[in-house]
Write a structure and sequence with these properties.
six-stranded antiparallel sheet; about 1100 residues; two-stranded antiparallel sheet; Helix Hairpins; 22 helices; mainly alpha; Rossmann fold
Amino acid sequence: MQILSIRGENIASLAKPFDIRLDTAPLAAAGLFAITGETGAGKSSLLDAMCLALYGNCPRLSGEGTAETVTDIGGQELRSTDARMVLRRGVASGFAEVTFRAADGETYTAGWQARRARDRIDGRLQAVERNLLRVSDGQMLETQIARVNERVIDLTGLTYDEFRRTVLLAQGDFAAFLEARTQDRAAILEKVTGTGIYRDISRRVFERTREAETALATLDARRGEHQVLTPEERDAVGAEIATLRAAQKAAAEEAAEVAKDLARYAAFEAAQDKLARARDRLARAGATLAGLAEDRRWLADWDRAQTLRGEARERDAATRELSEARAAQSRSAEALAAQQTQVTEAHGRAQAAEAAHLQAEELFKALAPEWDAATELDNRIASATEEHAQAASALTELRRAETDAKERSAELAAKDTALGTDIDAALRAVEAVDGHDILLANRGLIEERLAARVAQAGQAATAAAEAATTAQSIAEDRSRRDEIDAGVKDATHRIDAARAAQEALKADRAKLTEAAPAARLDRLAQAQSDLRALRNAADDLRRADAALEASRTLRAAAEQAQAEQSQALKDARAQQATSLAVIQSLRQPAEAADAAASRKAEHLRRHLVDGSPCPVCGATDHPVMQDGEIARLAQDLRRRLAEAQAARDTAEAAATAAQTRIESARETVAAETAKAPELQAAVEAAEAVYARALRPLQSGPLAGDLPEDPRAPAAGFDALQARLDDWRAALEADRDRLETLDRQHRDADRAIETARAEITKSERERRDIEARISAREKEIARLDQARAAAEAEVAGIDRALGPLLAPAGIDPAAFGAEGGAQLDRLRVTLAKLAQGRERIEALQHKRTALASTLAGARAELAGAAANRTRAAEVEARRRAALEDQRTARKALLGGEDTHAHRTRHNDARRAAQKAFEAAGKTLADATRAEAALASKLTAAREAETRADTRATAARDALTAGCAALGIEEARLMALQAADPAEVDARRTALKAAGDEQVAARGACADREEELATLEREGLPDTPKDALETRKGALETEAEARSESLGGLTEKLKADAEAAQALAGLEAEIATARETSETWAAVNAAIGSGKGDKFAQIAQAVTLA
């Protein structure tokens, strides 16, 4: 990528807008330039603006690991690494833009902007805005922050971290690099330049070496798994297979003959069976066809019956019409009679409804005085009812209170009885335990001392077990000590062997080390590089000479062409002028000749008369030639004019071409003249490069054989290169031999170090074992003392608790090391005794408190009974008064409610009125319906007469048709009523039966011919049973041979696969061994498990 310009405003210390153009003068041609200024002038801010525009981040915000926050305007908390912290204080917005040319050749502008809300300096900071614009077409490519970063990385080929490490180095990192100690500077350099990759390479080389060694070991193990046959065994298997295949072939031929004979028997039996089935089929077909004779006669009658289908349909339609007409006439007559009855009934109901209406009106008026008296008495009954309800409610409440008091008294008495029962039961439970008084009196002492006894017994048992375990550990440690002593002796022998191997390598290794083949190879490689540079310089000089000579030749040819084309242009111009003159002289005569030769002119000439004036020119003299001569003259003039015009066009084309070639030659001359100094300078520069490349070689091994002339033949360089290659091969052999010796020496060193480490480790472990044995012997003595003390403590506890536990029948010896459960059960018993005593005391206290409550409940019951008696007397008096009033009311309205009685009679009066009105309407409707039905009956009788006439005619026609066909009418109707599917079924069955008989007859003839043919051929001489027996034997033998062949074939196949796998495995082993040795060499040079070796080499090279 190439940075073209940097723009921005309000970025850190740069307040005013700035625009730095790196693609225009003076910076575009400056090459190397510096950004200088006072501290705080904005030098770093320019680089921050560039990074912000491209990646939305900058070096001043790269405080890794910091979590500091800064309070902005309005209390907004910002992290110190927030990109918006670059915005200058006291401004509303700021931006940064970078225009750059990407790897694709296009120019892009990346932008970053931060602003405050409402563009006010006291506004809250808003989210950062990013964009990416393509300059060529002004298209905005991205506006999302993440997408802008991704596109910038794609276009530049650099991430932000890579950009910081390759394009710019932040001043903080550079200062740290300059001030750091040497050992720290390597780490800083690795961070800045990304040389951490060498640490990864070193680790990967180490891991890859281990993988290659493991793969080689795996292949070696696989090689030992394969077993192959010897050639003799393989030949024997092949001979056995050939024998079995020959026998199999002979058996197959015999089996084919047997199968052929069996097939003849099978064909003969099949022919007999087929003939029997064919004859049976023919018989069945004949019987079936005979059984269908009735169907044939039925179908003939059915076909004849179809001719009278129209007469039958007419008879049926006429009969249906007559039946329907008669039914309609009958329904109309019945309806009219019924309607007449309804009219009579409606008239009677109307008269009865009128009488009922008048009676209801008179009764309603007569009941009015009795309703008034009943209403007054109803009011008095309502008051008495309310008073009685109040008295009854009070009586019910007092009865409930009496019941509650009685229940409460009974409940308290039951509780008192229950408490007495509980107290007695609790006393019996406590007294059931032997020695309960002594146990309760000494409960704490007993539990404490028994717990101590269990603990001491457990300590004694634990001490004994630990002592036994410790003794076993001491025995194991002593055994391990003996093993260590043997291992130390073996490691000492390995050290002696490794030192002897190093001593054997010492002489050759010292000789090769002194010869320093690696250093000589480096110098030889430098000489080869210098020789290639010298040869390249010679090649460059020859190319420069050739380019200069080609330019001179091209310029000379262009100058000659320019002169030749100038003359050609002059000749073309002259020819063009001559042609133009000829054209001018021929154009007018040619046009006149064309006019004279035209058809119109010819027509006018034919009408000219000597002495008469010409209608065109008026002349009386007509000196014209014959028509043919005029035509030939016109044709000759046109030809000459066309030739002159063609010559002119040719001259113009030649002039244009000559002018073009002149211009091209002139441009070539100018271009080659301009290139001449550059080409000459290139030749001189190539000579200078050759001279510089020659100087390093003049002090080397080829000093006397170097070509001084840079234009010497290339064969001399080939000879020098071949000599260096020979030297290199010898030095590489010495270097490889030295590396092998060094590797063997290092292997011996590693073996020595490994053995020493084993000895050191073993000695350290032996000291640890001795210390453990001593400590464990002391531990056994301590455990013995602890066991004795615990047993003495147990004896003391038994003496103290024996008298206390004896009344309860408890033996202290039961509470040994495993007596925890027994102690828990005793504690439960003691707890239950204590709880029983506490329960007795609580129940007695509760019964005492209950006695006073019970006396109060009994007094409350007596008061409630007296109140209930008084309330019952008041309720009885009010109930008697209510009954007297109700008796008086029953004498009125029959005891019915006044409102209901009045409503009922009013409803009856209104219903009678409505019934009277409805009866009148019903009578009118019935009368109208009677008239309509009378008209309908007359029409039905006329329709019946017409239908009867039609039915008679239809029956006569059908009878005449049946007589003509000779079919009874009943059979005709049955045939015509037959289902079409039945007709089709009968026809299909009859046809199928006929077809089957014909087919069966033909099949029977074929089977008879087939059987006759087989009888003429005859049967095999061997009986069928013998053939089948032989076939079974051959199949059994063939199966056995196939199994044997399969086993032998699989054996050969497995042997071939094993041999192939082994051959491929050898190749894999060879490849794996080369790979393992290669990686071992690389690992020896740069590989290490932590990656330090190659990282140190890279840092040393970088810092050198």
